[in-house]
Design brief:
By secondary structure, this protein is an all-alpha fold. The protein contains nine helices and no strands. The longest helix has about 30 residues.
């Protein structure tokens, strides 16, 4: 019976690995695409030249966002009646803000690379969409930073919780930096953005290797 339970929890860790992989690919694809030109007259040429990579990134993002749903659900229900209030608040940030904003980014990115009936994609429209995407990603990074930190604090009294807390603090810092992409070089931005899929991978690994395989005496010692 114990082996069946452990296998079930192992399967629950898979969404974290899947989401981590998809988001890592998404950020790497965006890194390959150079920043939009400052001259609005060159925007259409920029889209056409990098259309394939933008289309792939657009498709990857929707699957990455969907894979977050079961992952965050696992974090929300990991301790049932002993659920941390901080963990619940962090999950609320994901469900109410972060995930819907990722969906909005996906829709806006798709508008750039896919035809929409007969409506023309003017230079002004492209500028608006790119500016909107930048603003949304700024908000996403800030809320990701807060959610990651809250999860880290909620795990701090568990087995190896101090390690998870340190990881969360690092993720918090990198995401805050990533929230200002216009001040960063593409390489630094990529490193900061990858802190999110790395955090997802580490949490999935933690849940499989520690949280559900080692008896936890401190499960009820949560905020």
């Amino acid at each position: 019976m114990n082996e069946i339970v452990n296998k079930s929890y192992t399967l629950k860790g898979l969404p974290f690995f899947i989401a981590s992989l998809f988001f890592a690919i998404y950020y790497l694809l965006l890194y390959i695409v150079p920043p939009p030109p400052s001259e609005t007259s060159h925007l259409h040429l920029w889209i056409m030249e990098w259309k394939f990579y933008l289309q792939i990134a657009d498709e990857i993002l929707i699957f990455a966002t969907i894979s977050l749903l079961p992952a965050i659900y696992t974090l929300t229900n990991v301790r049932l009646i002993f659920e941390s209030k901080l963990s619940l608040f962090a999950s609320g940030l994901f469900y109410l803000f972060i995930i819907p904003l990722f969906v909005l980014v996906d829709l806006l990115l798709g508008r750039l690379v896919y035809p929409v009936n007969v409506y023309p994609l003017t230079a002004d429209t492209i500028v608006f969409i790119l500016s909107f995407i930048t603003g949304i990603m700024h908000m996403i990074s800030i809320m990701l930073a807060l959610a990651i930190l809250l999860y880290g604090v909620s795990f701090r009294k568990n087995t190896l919780g101090s390690l998870i807390l340190v990881t969360a603090i690092l993720g918090f810092g990198f995401q805050i930096i990533a929230s200002y992409p216009w001040l960063l070089t593409p390489g630094i931005l990529l490193v900061c953005q990858l802190s999110f899929p790395i955090w997802l991978f580490l949490i999935g690994l933690y849940l499989i290797k520690v949280e559900y395989r080692i008896p936890n005496k401190n499960q009820t010692d949560l905020n």
